[in-house]
Specification:
By secondary structure, the chain is of the alpha/beta class. The protein has 2 domains: 222 residues, Alpha-Beta Horseshoe (Leucine-rich repeat, LRR (right-handed beta-alpha superhelix)), CATH 3.80.10.10; 71 residues, no CATH class. The protein is built from 5 helices and 14 strands. The chain has a 10-stranded parallel beta sheet with strand order 1-2-3-4-5-7-10-12-13-14. A two-stranded parallel sheet has the order 6-8. A two-stranded parallel ribbon has the order 9-11. Helix 3 packs across helix 5 and helix 4 crosses helix 5.
Length: 301
């Protein structure tokens, strides 16, 4: 990570990682690096929307990442590179309404929203939606209500949801997205897994016979409902472990194959207990990570 002068000239530069900007820095002139294709920006300090306005001059830029440090509020730049295909936002705490601006990017194919890139319980995309988006990742979010339809993501192929503890359902109309091939879920409500399976089933019925069917749902980790109160975490985890093991057979077999194959019933039972213990540790670690993030959010307010 380093700070570069706004007059830094390097016309043959194509990749620039972790260009750092603080509120006291002069506005950069991205005309000086016209051939950039990949750019990662770290922001420390409040920047006005026009501070990075010269991004619009990066005609060849396809991949852009923003990560924010000690900032109370992040503002999207007034303009984006016209041919941007991949955008990653991390720790930006944008209201979901700002995604309407991102949706206007004409060539955007991949959008990654990491570690509270957006903050808020409700996301309702504009009618315009994301016309060219093929892959969407939401990782660590307090999103609870996602009011969207197939019209908002007409060519979506891959949806990945990680640590979205409060989201209970994927929009059922996603079953109508004929291009959707994969949904990946990691550490989420069991109801979210159920809704994904329902979408997969409906998708198969709607697009039966298509060469790229069916839609696949991949679960990573365990299916655990968040407890209503913190003191009930252990009980909640214990009640859901057996269901998690049964629904994650591949993971269970992988972790206990050497111990259980050819062993006695007692040895298999011990192996299964070890698997459940490992699952319990993973869930506990995920819950603690989510609590830490929530505490950070509260401190920001």
């Amino acid at each position: 990570m380093f700070t570069v002068s706004p007059f830094f000239v390097k016309k043959d530069l194509q990749t620039l990682y972790w260009l750092k900007f603080a509120s006291s820095d002069e506005k950069p002139n991205f005309k000086m690096v016209p051939n950039l294709k990949e750019l990662e920006i770290y922001i420390e300090g409040l920047l006005g929307p026009s501070h990075l306005g010269s991004l619009v001059h990066l005609q060849l830029l396809e991949k852009l990442k923003f990560e924010v440090g000690r900032v109370e509020r992040f503002c999207l730049p007034t303009g984006f590179p016209p041919n941007l295909k991949k955008l990653t936002l991390r720790y930006t705490y944008l209201p979901w309404k700002e995604m309407d601006t991102i949706g206007k990017l004409p060539h955007l194919e991949v959008l990654k929203l990491k570690d509270f890139a957006c903050y808020g319980s409700k996301w309702e995309p504009s009618k315009q939606g994301f016309r060219e988006l093929k892959a969407l990742l939401i990782s660590r979010s307090n999103l609870k209500h996602w009011n969207a339809s197939a019209n908002h993501f007409p060519v979506l192929e891959r949806l990945v949801l990680r640590y979205c503890w409060e989201l209970k359902q994927i929009p059922i109309n996603f079953a109508k997205i004929g291009t959707l091939k994969l949904i990946v879920l990691e550490c989420c409500y069991s109801s979210l897994v159920t809704s994904a399976n329902q979408i997969s089933l409906a998708n198969k019925l709607l697009f039966e016979g298509k060469a790229d069917c069916p839609l696949c749902v991949r679960k990573v980790g365990t299916k655990v409902e968040l407890p209503n109160i913190e003191s009930s975490e252990e009980e909640s985890i214990e009640h859901s472990e057996e269901e998690s093991v049964e629904s994650s057979k591949e993971e269970s077999v992988k972790n206990s194959k050497e111990e259980s194959v050819g062993s006695s019933n007692q040895e298999r039972l011990k192996a299964r207990k070890r698997v459940m213990k490992n699952l319990k540790k993973k869930v506990s670690k995920s819950l603690n990570a989510f609590k830490d993030l929530k505490r950070k959010v509260l401190r920001r307010k």
